[in-house]
Write a structure and sequence with these properties.
With about 170 residues, the chain is an alpha/beta fold. The protein has one domain: 3-Layer(aba) Sandwich (Lysozyme-like). It has six helices and five strands. Strands 3-2-4-1-5 form a five-stranded mixed beta sheet. Helix 3 crosses helix 6. The protein is globular. The N and C termini lie far apart (about 35 Å).
């Protein structure tokens, strides 16, 4: 499952569409490992409040979002796209974002020389692929390119992307 020589330039954030519970990462990783995700669904990392599980090696591609599998590193987070602002700010999500998501994304940015910036579908369509985006933005990109996609909206409109990007930027520039 190599990348055909394609350089990793994009980090794609997802929600695992799971409950916010301990061991959610392990359960989701088991879902992918057991083949329940299907032949065309996989991820590099799954995160929850107390841990990170790696499912696919970074040097290999995961099947996380149409158009961004060869150049992307995919990160699934416990939670759901339908969460509102209060749910993303609760103790569970706040701790997961602070202690798992932000440090992991910052580490990948540093190692892979990925810019700690948010990429919208408009940026992706313009060919700016160096940064951090979401599955929802990848879906909008695919629709604009008239590429068949399942219409994923994760991690959802209330996901605190600005807070995540700010936290990543602070760690990268430290």
């Amino acid at each position: 499952m190599g990348r055909n020589g394609t350089k990793v330039t994009t980090i794609v954030l997802h929600t695992a569409e799971t409950s916010e519970i301990t061991n959610s990462a392990e359960g989701t990783a088991g879902f992918f490992k057991g083949g329940s995700g299907g032949a065309n669904a996989s991820t590099h990392f799954v995160l929850d409040v107390d841990g990170t599980v790696q499912c696919v090696r970074e040097k290999d591609r995961a099947y996380g979002a149409v158009g961004f599998n060869y150049n992307g590193i995919h990160i699934e987070q416990a939670g759901r796209a339908a969460q509102g602002p209060a749910q993303w700010a609760d103790d569970y999500s706040a701790a997961m974002l602070k202690n798992q998501t932000i440090p992991l994304v910052a580490d990948i940015c540093k190692r892979r020389k990925i810019a700690p910036v948010y990429l919208t579908a408009k940026d992706l369509l313009a060919g700016n692929l160096n940064g951090i985006t979401t599955h929802a933005q990848c879906t909008l990109w695919a629709k604009a390119k008239k590429i068949k996609t399942r219409g994923h909206t994760d991690p959802g409109p209330s996901y605190p992307i600005s807070m995540v990007i700010d936290g990543v930027r602070k760690l990268v520039n430290k």
